[in-house]
Fold each of these.
Amino acid sequence: MSLDALDFKIIKIHRLPEGNQRIKAFVDLGINDTILIKGLRVVDTDKGLFVSMPQEQGKNSRWYEKVRCLNQEVRSRISQKVLEAYKTQA
């Protein structure tokens, strides 16, 4: 499948109140009107904003991604789309 065939749509952005927390927003992302990924996070770090995939904590107290991109280009496009939407919604 060509990456051009993937259509990413921001379904919802839930901004958290301004403050000192690192997580700035939760985002739901649709892919080709067939898949919904809920709970992507916009996180603020010393290096700037980045997008974190949904995670859950295992019994061993470690955090694991619930959704993983197997292709770095797809991951980059998702991050770009989410951050563009986050910045324009301000």
Note: Residues 72-89 form the longest helix (18 residues).
Amino acid sequence: MSLLWRRKVVLAKIETTYGTDAAPAGGDAILATDVRMSPMQGQDLDRNLDTPHGGPTGTIPVELHHTISFKVEMAGSGTAGTAPRWGRLLRACGCAETLAVGTSVTYNRIYSDLESVTLHLNIGGTLYAMVGSRGTAAFDVSASGIPYIEFEFTALYVAPADATIPTPDFSGIPDPLAASNANTPVFTIDGTSLVMRSFKLSLANRIEAQFLIGEEEVLLDGHENTIEARVRAVPLSQFDPFGAAATQDKLAVEIEHGKTAGNIVNIACPSAQMQRPEGLEDGQGRKEWPLRLVPLPTASTAADQWEMTLT
């Protein structure tokens, strides 16, 4: 019997105990696209035996783990103060989730008490269970496109098994809005409104699977946040990225997408260092700047390189 590739269900649930399957069900379904999975990553340990035939003597698979990547539409829950379904995925990427009931949901970087998530991917009746999952994410907003959060996870290995395809419950997941002048009303660098073609904030978490006797864990060990934006060039008297890079200026960056309560996403970086602009681009006959910035902590805290607020 053929197993259909497009018949996929992705489930995600925060783990109470690291590496113990949290048993996600239909109400934990994630609306994902561009799902890519490597079901048996690791190494093949060569036995390298001396034999009369001088040929291969077999291998032993070690350090087995899963990797998975997918994209999720960047829209809120539809209700202010209620976490979106993808919030649990950000929590497994080294982020705290703070709820203000009826008002807002906030995500920001944390460095201790890191959480993990159990992911279940069912493709055509084969279950790929991934426990102890931790990963990284990127927020991508491009003109005339759907804003996405791009996730990449590494997980401890569980052998695939035949399983009934679960019935996903996608209630409470609103439709997204395409990025546009009307739907994305704010994009500023250093308080200057700029015409933006694309924006991407990458968390760039460093993920490493550790396999020791007595402990196996996917570690999140540091990060290299970056912002990449392509904007229409303006007179340098209005905004000068070259001067800002030369003097190592730390600039505030803000983008907001969405129009209605419960579906407004604001990303703010209060202190992003401008990097050297290395090129110019032709954007439909207009000069454009590809810009790169590095979000840095302020003097007050190391956890405020960036903050996402849903209202």
Note: Residues 8-41+61-310 form one domain.
Amino acid sequence: MSTYVIILKEKRPANELLLKLKEAQTPILNCDLVEPLNNKSDHENSNSYISEEVFANQSSFNNIKILNPALARKDRQKTLATWLIPFGFVAGLSFSQMTDLKTFADMGFPNQLEKLLGGLVGMISGVLGSFFSAGGISQEIVDDLRALRKKSEEGFWLLILELPIEIEPPWAILNETDSIEVITIGKE
């Protein structure tokens, strides 16, 4: 998917843009409207324009996975753990079975538990693998996130659009909008 962050001065143009995109039948996978960290606009004025249909999920900067690397890391860690832990158990069990080592028996554990304990050690390695593998993000994304955080702190609204990778964003509609800037964040 391709992710575009449209930086806007206020909420009203975001709602207008979403209406235009819906009329143009643009396939949007996900849409989030991020309120400014330093909200200078008065809430009564910005909320008076909202139509009955809500097109975007409105939330704060730190609750959006793409803007908060810690949330994204937790999600990746859970995903990795779901297959690394069972794989580690099976690999540890298999390794103990194939090598017939007596590592745990030499430590005083019963010989019957040797293979099971090998599987548990494999599970522990799966947990550690999911923890360390889910780490880092690229420096380019970190720089984009800093710029977006700065814009949000300055009082700008961020409209995050996720489109299918094969779909080019409707630049004509985006150019009609009173936006400050459009930032593209990594393609998956």
Note: The CA atoms of residues 106 and 124 lie 20 Å apart.
